[in-house]
Amino acid sequence: MELNAIQDSFERVVKKQKLSYSKSQELIRQVGHEIDQALARIQSDNDSGISIDPKTVLTELKAKLQIVGSHNHLEGLQRDLNTSLSKHQKLLEKMLYPDISNTYGNVDFDPHIVNQIIIGHVYREGLFDIADCLIQEASEPEAKSLRLHFEEIHQILKALKSRNLEPAVNWVSKNQERLKESGSNLELKLHKLHFVDILQKRSRADAVKYARTYLAPLASYHMKEIQKLMGSLLWAGKLDKSPYANLVDPIHWEKLAEELMLTYCNFTGQSFRDPLNVAVAAGAEGLPTLLKLANVMAAKKQEWWAMKQLPVPVELGKEFQFHSVFVCPVSREQGSEENPPMLLPCGHVLCKQSISKLSKGNSRSFKCPYCPQNASVAQCQQLYF
């Protein structure tokens, strides 16, 4: 919606600019034509010998130019163009540089949680010295335990960037049982990349030796993948020009690093996605809606942050949905602590307030809106998502 408004405003400015340009060129041509005619009359006096008073010619030229009104017309066109440009500039400032402080609510934050989130973010970025300094200044000594987690994974990922798989292999070996329980094939992917790297940089014999040592124990679970790797032995040193060229695609290293980070965070009880990044990204996506709401509420002399629930939906992408949301099929309202979802004996789910209305204030049984079965309020059970 905002982009459409900006585009419409821009098109109006362009239209005014084109009109101003064409009219200005037309007026300049008229003025030039009148001046050329006046000069021609004065020159004809010298050539033909007919006496023509130059002052009379200039007086007539002045009168014609006043009729054309070049100066006034140009000034008016320029004024209209400047007005459109000024409006467009104000619109851009309003749309692109809004006062986001209007969306700020006077909410009580827990400084301890905020500090933990910021310190965790800095550790995730590998800025360990800065995080240690923040811990000292914020007096959050317990947050230092995060350093051990992220320091280890950063060392593994740093080694991966230089094609050194040893730290990653050591970590996988140490957590082999947990990886099997979770159904992860991270161990295979690591050894697969190492095998391909050996096949590219060293001899076929070295690759075979590595396969016998590390890939053979995995054959019972990943036979097809290992058979494919054995076929690639025929193209040692030239895999990039073979039917197995996909094996040397750098994307495999990037995916491995991402999967390692995900698995590591799961094992250490950390979220894979940085909470601070998620909060900032979600806030930026919902900000336009909140700005509009703040402006509307300000006009009504009301404060939106004093409400228990926003009067308008804030649409966020699926990447920001971390839990189930129930919307009552009868009232079309989202479930809340005051109006929780309730399971009927027939298996259908309605919000508590809808059930109260159907049962006339919990005084009698009612028929489910979606099937013929009757139910009472006492038979309904609250659901927890």
From TrEMBL:
<dbReference type="GO" id="GO:0005634">
    <property type="term" value="C:nucleus"/>
</dbReference>
<dbReference type="GO" id="GO:0034657">
    <property type="term" value="C:GID complex"/>
</dbReference>
<dbReference type="InterPro" id="IPR045098">
    <property type="entry name" value="Fyv10_fam"/>
</dbReference>
<dbReference type="GO" id="GO:0005737">
    <property type="term" value="C:cytoplasm"/>
</dbReference>
<dbReference type="InterPro" id="IPR013144">
    <property type="entry name" value="CRA_dom"/>
</dbReference>
<keyword id="KW-0862">Zinc</keyword>
<dbReference type="InterPro" id="IPR006594">
    <property type="entry name" value="LisH"/>
</dbReference>
<dbReference type="InterPro" id="IPR001841">
    <property type="entry name" value="Znf_RING"/>
</dbReference>
<keyword id="KW-0963">Cytoplasm</keyword>
<dbReference type="InterPro" id="IPR006595">
    <property type="entry name" value="CTLH_C"/>
</dbReference>
<dbReference type="Pfam" id="PF10607">
    <property type="entry name" value="CTLH"/>
</dbReference>
<dbReference type="InterPro" id="IPR024964">
    <property type="entry name" value="CTLH/CRA"/>
</dbReference>
<dbReference type="GO" id="GO:0008270">
    <property type="term" value="F:zinc ion binding"/>
</dbReference>
<keyword id="KW-0863">Zinc-finger</keyword>
<dbReference type="Pfam" id="PF13445">
    <property type="entry name" value="zf-RING_UBOX"/>
</dbReference>
<protein>
    <submittedName>
        <fullName>Protein RMD5 homolog A-like</fullName>
    </submittedName>
</protein>
<dbReference type="GO" id="GO:0061630">
    <property type="term" value="F:ubiquitin protein ligase activity"/>
</dbReference>
<dbReference type="InterPro" id="IPR044063">
    <property type="entry name" value="ZF_RING_GID"/>
</dbReference>
<dbReference type="GO" id="GO:0043161">
    <property type="term" value="P:proteasome-mediated ubiquitin-dependent protein catabolic process"/>
</dbReference>
<dbReference type="InterPro" id="IPR027370">
    <property type="entry name" value="Znf-RING_euk"/>
</dbReference>
<dbReference type="InterPro" id="IPR037683">
    <property type="entry name" value="Rmd5_dRing"/>
</dbReference>
<dbReference type="InterPro" id="IPR013083">
    <property type="entry name" value="Znf_RING/FYVE/PHD"/>
</dbReference>
<keyword id="KW-0479">Metal-binding</keyword>
<feature type="zinc finger region" description="RING-Gid-type">
    <location>
        <begin position="328"/>
        <end position="371"/>
    </location>
</feature>
<feature type="domain" description="RING-type">
    <location>
        <begin position="328"/>
        <end position="371"/>
    </location>
</feature>
<feature type="domain" description="RING-Gid-type">
    <location>
        <begin position="328"/>
        <end position="371"/>
    </location>
</feature>
<feature type="domain" description="CTLH">
    <location>
        <begin position="149"/>
        <end position="206"/>
    </location>
</feature>
